[in-house]
Specification:
Dimethylsulfoxide Reductase, domain 2; 4 domains; 7-stranded mixed sheet; 27 strands; binds iron/sulfur cluster; Assimilatory nitrate reductase catalytic subunit; 4 iron, 4 sulfur cluster binding; iron; iron-sulfur
């Protein structure tokens, strides 16, 4: 397909998936926002500068194979033959589970689907998971338990425009997805965040709990809602089950106790509940701050319980939702690249699900492996006697983004074979034995599913540079070399999408009625969309929840401490997050000059009193040390920080990686690592 002059597509970065139009000008590619509902003519810094990604100097253009310690350019046949030969040997010596696959939440739906199929059929491995496990797996588990299905926002973003009050728990959209804020312009915001973020600055009420205590706080909010008479008893009776058990747990979380545990004053707790309960239109939204904990699922369940008690979910103009982060964080978790799931959001242990997917793939159900390890457990097992000896990474950079990153580098370095498919030489690619240059964003066709469960077309403006190929072609080439019939791995995105839709039919995320033609004709299609006449489902749960009885479930939860608590050697708690100008591991945005200029280096935010006690001053370099490692960051003294907490962004590489510090304690259900609570000490370092 040749270059075209202009295309309507979407931003390459976050889950808002702002609408853009790209045009090839004499001086390069220009971007302008479209009137797409989520951004309505707005873009953030990242969206405005996205065309620079098409012209980055160190763009991968040729396959690379490690020889004599260095990565050497080779042709595609050599690269793919090398991988297939080494995989064959590893599988012969150690079995199919000796090869693992690590996917990404930025991959198109088509890539995510074909990657899952490739892993289960061509490799025959159960060992596949993806970086979305680090993103919103806790919200997904809690949403499934409460509502019977998980879709980030079960309503369109534009519904928020009519809200009187929105509670944001651990979400900072003013920095992470600024165009969303136009929908919150008229709402009063209640923000729960240990930091005074850009979003908290705009809030009518900011609750600033100690990190790791959100669950105690929300149990207290439920307590107030019930005791002060704000609970919607008719709604609880007619639309939910399990209230009594959830209330039993909240009973002992009276406001004064909550204040002692969280630091949030009683008056602020009462005001938050009153604001939500008195509003004629109110929403509760969670983000990573509430979710990335070893009790992340319970914490999100706590917020859903509060929303249910106030009668919000499944009613027009009200609701609960999760602000998904990665570009295809929603679609990425629906099509089979999760360790425990098959396409259509089906559980891999469900015999009916296995039979349906096996039939779509033309194999017997017994051929499909069972569940594998979750993302961190997969990375942690690499190179061990029980774990994979080879890993194929598509669209992810775990050297920077995984928790306890120093340990993960050790594990990656112990592999017999590391293959990375990416369009930039990421920090993980630099460790690889084979690097495969693949297409990005404006060089490919496909679909993405945004945070509203709306399926969007990604369109190609221009051919990729050098010898870069689409990931679909890479998977086809590898599968054939591993002895699979080529027709099982189409290279056309449209063909893969059609198969994906068939595989999803009847599942929770049902795409069966969606086609490229309908999307190209401008239809706004949110799943489920089970047939060609179906208009899609922008609002879920209005007629009942997705459990067989149609009722939502209260889930009883109890507060517990984080995996580690500050003590003499590590007296502070570090929490991590994003800044406006950078995205995820920074592998893309650190290569865009304007973004790097806006946010060039790692920093650590610290309260003035804490800084003084540690001998730190604004602007000097500090060493932040946790039980797992140390990271360097420039000190920012911030008066609004809690005295017991420091904050670091996680976008920066090398010795500035915040994830050198982060805890690898996992939530028992979602297997989400505890990125948001790590004990640390901070001390000055001399700059050379
Ligand atoms: Fe892109 Fe997200 Fe910024 Fe929109 S908010 S321009 S999708 S990064």
């Amino acid at each position: 397909m040749p270059d075209v002059r202009t295309v309507a597509t979407h931003c390459p970065y976050c889950a808002l998936q702002c609408g853009t139009q790209l045009t090839r000008e004499r001086r390069g590619v220009s971007v302008r926002p479209t009137d797409f509902p989520v951004n309505r003519g707005g873009l953030c810094q990242k969206g405005w500068t996205a065309p620079a990604l098409l012209d980055i100097p160190d763009r991968l253009r040729n396959p690379l194979v490690r020889r004599d310690g260095g990565l050497t350019p080779v042709d595609w046949d050599t690269a793919l033959d090398t991988i297939a030969t080494r995989i064959d040997r590893i599988r012969r010596d150690h079995g199919p589970d000796a090869v693992g696959v690590f996917g990404g939440g930025g991959l198109t739906n088509e890539k995510a689907y074909l990657l899952g199929k490739f892993a289960r059929l061509a490799l025959g491995t159960s060992q596949i998971d993806y970086n979305g496990r680090f993103c919103m797996s806790s919200a997904a588990a809690a949403g499934n338990a409460a509502f019977g299905v998980d879709r980030g926002l079960p309503f369109p973003v534009t519904d928020l425009g009519g809200a009187d009050v929105v509670l944001l728990a651990g979400a900072n959209p003013a920095e992470t997805m600024p165009p969303l804020m136009q929908h919150l312009r008229t709402a009063q915001l209640v923000v729960i965040d240990p930091r005074r973020t850009a979003t908290a600055e705009r809030a009518a009420l900011h609750l600033q709990p100690s990190p790791g205590t959100d669950l105690a706080l929300v149990l207290g909010l439920l307590h107030i809602a019930v005791v002060d008479g704000w609970a919607d008893t008719d709604y609880i009776r007619t639309r939910t089950t399990g209230f009594d058990a959830a209330w039993q747990r909240a009973m002992t979380w009276w406001p004064e106790r909550v204040e002692r545990v969280t630091g949030v004053p009683v008056t602020a707790q009462r005001q938050a509940v009153r604001m939500l309960a008195e509003a004629s239109s109110a929403y509760v939204l969670t983000g990573r701050g509430a979710e990335q904990h070893s009790k992340g699922v319970d914490t999100v369940s706590g917020f859903i319980n509060l929303a249910l008690a106030l009668g919000l979910p499944g009613r027009a103009g009200r609701g609960y939702g999760c602000l998904t982060g990665q570009g295809n964080g929603q679609g990425g978790r629906e099509h089979g690249q999760k360790a425990d799931q098959l396409p259509g959001y089906r559980m891999i242990t469900d015999p009916a699900a296995r039979a349906h997917v096996a039939e779509t793939w033309g194999v017997l159900p017994d051929v499909l492996p069972g569940p594998g390890r979750s993302a961190y457990e997969l990375l942690d097992a690499l190179g061990t006697t029980e774990g994979p000896r080879a890993l194929l990474v598509f669209g992810s950079n775990p050297v920077v983004s995984a928790p306890n990153a120093g340990h993960i580098v050790d594990r990656l370095s112990s592999l017999d074979l590391l293959v990375v498919a990416d369009f930039v030489p990421s920090e993980t690619a630099q460790l690889a034995d084979v690097v495969l240059p693949v297409t990005q964003w404006a060089e490919e066709e496909g679909t993405m599913t945004n945070l509203e469960g709306r399926i969007l077309r990604r369109r190609r403006l221009q051919v990729p540079p050098g010898h870069a190929r689409s990931d679909l072609e890479v998977l086809h080439g590898l599968a054939v070399r591993l002895g699979e019939p080529g027709h099982r791995y189409p290279t056309s995105p449209r063909e893969v999408f059609e198969e994906l839709c068939r595989a999803s039919a009847g599942g929770k995320a049902d795409y069966a009625g969606i086609t490229y033609e309908r999307l190209d004709a401008g239809e706004a299609l949110h799943w489920p969309c089970p047939d060609a006449e179906h208009p899609g489902t922008p609002r879920l749960f209005l007629d009942g929840f997705a459990h067989p009885d149609g009722f939502a479930r209260f889930v009883p939860v109890e507060h517990r401490d984080s995996a580690e608590s500050p003590h003499g050697t590590f007296p502070l708690t570090a929490t991590t997050g994003r800044v406006l100008a950078q995205y995820q591991s920074g592998a893309q945005t650190r290569r865009v000059a304007e973004l790097n200029e806006a946010s060039p280096e790692a920093f650590v935010e610290i309260h003035p009193d804490t800084a003084y006690r540690a001998g730190l001053a604004d602007g000097i370099m500090a060493k932040v040390t946790s039980p797992r490692g140390s990271a360097l960051a420039r000190v920012r003294v911030v008066a609004t920080m809690r005295t017991d907490t420091v904050f670091l962004p996680f976008h920066f590489p090398g010795g500035a990686r915040a994830n050198l510090l982060t805890s690898d304690a996992l939530d028992p259900r979602s297997r989400m690592p505890e990125f948001k609570v790590s004990v640390v000490r901070v001390e000055p370092v001399q700059e050379a």
